[in-house]
Specification:
heterodimer, A: 298 residues, alpha+beta, Uridine Diphospho-n-acetylenolpyruvylglucosamine Reductase, domain 2, Uridine Diphospho-n-acetylenolpyruvylglucosamine Reductase, domain 3, Enolase-like, domain 1, 3 domains, five-stranded antiparallel β-sheet, 34% helix, globular, B: 190 residues, Ubiquitin-like (UB roll), DNA polymerase, domain 1, 2 domains, five-stranded mixed β-sheet, 5 strands, 14% strand
Chain lengths: 298, 190
């Protein structure tokens, strides 16, 4: 239960980090909060040749909210994201979901972006990014080294970013520097609910819901994202089940049935596929009711 | 071939240390083996049980999920740092003893550090909030009832001490954070 030997790099700037990652290529893993990576190392399920520790890159520990966008830097801990008042005011979903990430002690160290890159299908943050239609900013060093370390950037939409369990679209040499969560406009509400065996454990099933109403308090849009029911977070548009219905009298059973038809959960030692599908239905009804009620108050 | 080591400066319970450690050395192992502070216990070594919880710049973290090199230049508070200024039991430790909040005691260091930080930010928790606060720490003996009681008793002790301590001084200490933010019951006559 001790980690294997690795070469350790602790860059002091983003440019240095990108240059180091470019040199090391596929042999390196990025160490941010380490709350998923270190357990894997301790159990020797992985043995990367090198770790690039970004914990000294203080310029990446931001949570910025402006222009209908919450932008979270690679070194912002879950606790920072959770407590940021401007982000909460703009996008309450971020706090609602972050509070369900493991325990406070883990949230003090683990990072929002790290959780997204790790792409655990049971994790909350990838689903939140997907639900918001957000994106991940990836930086890499380009050029021949003679001209210094001009950095290349690319942005990947959440819908394309999650490739499979623990697999996201980060290429060797790239660093995920930030994640951007667009803020929905108009009369909106959100909710995050999940069921786990013990508080703080990975969810057997979890759902985030974004609801939007028109001026007559009728449902304009109802979107849900599910965790622990597939190899990646699953986005389901529930609008067709409830469009045009008054927000506090919407047919949430139809929405739940639609969600249950769209997901393909698997059995594992924690729960059967049938039970996860059942939970998805129950949680859809509850979370949609909460999100719609909040939108009604907006 | 010997494994490469890295120099690390670490302040633990207010005392500065300079270490030379392999990159893969976990903070928990540095505390126990390099510094001899065996009050930090290792249970699961993958972040689930909470026994190894210490305070890093005043905030609870799992010391089994941190490399020592990563926390270079930071302040750590361990179970030993939760003692009273006179070396006796600190307020949270006293509450655990009074309320029988421990049986075998293996998990206790993680509870004491977690509760110390929690009560600094939440001085008067309900029983339900106290239970939530310790949700990340496993105890296989007590059934948690007496630990919840201990959290509330520790809150009482701390509030009583805060009333006796000069207020301005208290606030200055809180704002500095880190190891110095731990309760130091100077005025307690026990």
């Amino acid at each position: 239960m001790k980690p294997p030997v690795f070469a350790y790099h602790r860059p002091a700037s983003l440019d240095e980090a990108l240059a180091t990652l470019a040199d090391l290529g596929g042999d390196a893993k990025v160490l941010a909060g380490g709350q998923s990576l270190v357990p894997v190392l301790n159990m020797r399920l992985a043995a990367p040749a090198a770790l690039v520790d970004i914990n000294k890159l203080a310029e990446l520990s931001f949570v910025h909210t402006h222009d209908h966008l919450v932008r979270v830097g690679a070194l912002a801990r879950h606790a920072r994201t959770e407590r940021d008042e401007a982000a909460f005011a703009a996008l309450p979903l971020l706090r609602q979901a972050t509070r369900q990430v493991a325990h406070p002690t883990i949230r003090n160290r683990g990072t929002t972006v790290g959780s997204i890159v790790h792409a655990d299908p049971a994790a909350e943050m990838p689903a939140v990014l997907l639900l918001c239609g957000g994106s991940v900013e990836l930086a890499s060093a380009v050029g021949d080294g003679q001209r210094g370390t001009a950095s290349g950037r690319r942005e990947v939409a959440a819908a394309d970013f999650f490739l499979g369990p623990l697999d996201s679209d980060v290429r060797p040499g790239e660093l995920a520097v930030a994640a951007s969560f667009p803020v929905p406009t108009g009369r909106c509400g959100s909710a995050w609910l999940e069921v786990s065996r013990r508080a703080g454990d990975y969810a057997l099933c979890g759902v985030g819901v974004l609801a939007a109403l028109d001026a007559d308090s009728r449902v304009r849009r109802l979107l849900a994202a599910y965790i622990s029911v597939g190899p990646t977070p699953v986005l389901v548009d529930l609008t067709e089940a409830v469009a045009g219905q008054v927000f506090d009298a919407a047919d949430l059973s139809s929405a739940a049935a639609l969600a249950q038809a769209r997901i393909e959960p698997d059995d594992d030692i924690h729960a059967t596929a049938d039970y996860r599908r059942h939970l998805a239905g129950v949680l859809t009804r509850r979370a949609a009711a909460e999100a719609l009620a909040r939108a009604g108050e907006a | 071939m010997a494994e490469a080591t890295h120099p690390v400066e670490l302040t633990v319970n207010g005392i500065p240390h300079t270490l030379a450690v392999p990159a893969r050395r976990l903070l928990a192992d540095s505390l126990r083996h390099d510094l001899g502070l065996t009050g930090t216990h290792l249970g699961c070594e993958h972040g689930v049980c909470g026994a190894c919880t210490v305070l890093l710049d005043g905030e609870p973290v799992r010391s089994c999920l941190l490399f020592t090199v990563t926390v270079d230049g930071q302040e750590v508070t361990t179970m030993e740092g939760c003692r009273a200024a006179d070396g006796g039991l600190g307020p949270v430790q006293r509450a655990f003893r009074e309320c029988h909040g421990l049986q075998c005691g293996f998990c206790t260091p993680g509870f004491v550090t977690t509760v110390t930080a929690y009560l600094r930010d939440n001085p008067d928790p309900t029983a339900e909030e106290a239970r939530e606060a310790i949700g990340g720490n496993l105890c296989r003996c007590t059934g948690y009832q007496n630990i919840v009681a201990s959290v509330q008793r520790a809150a009482e002790i701390l509030r009583a001490e805060a009333r006796r301590a000069p207020r301005g001084d208290d606030r200055a200490r809180d704002e500095r954070g880190g190891a110095e933010a731990k309760p130091a019951p100077r005025a307690e006559a026990s």
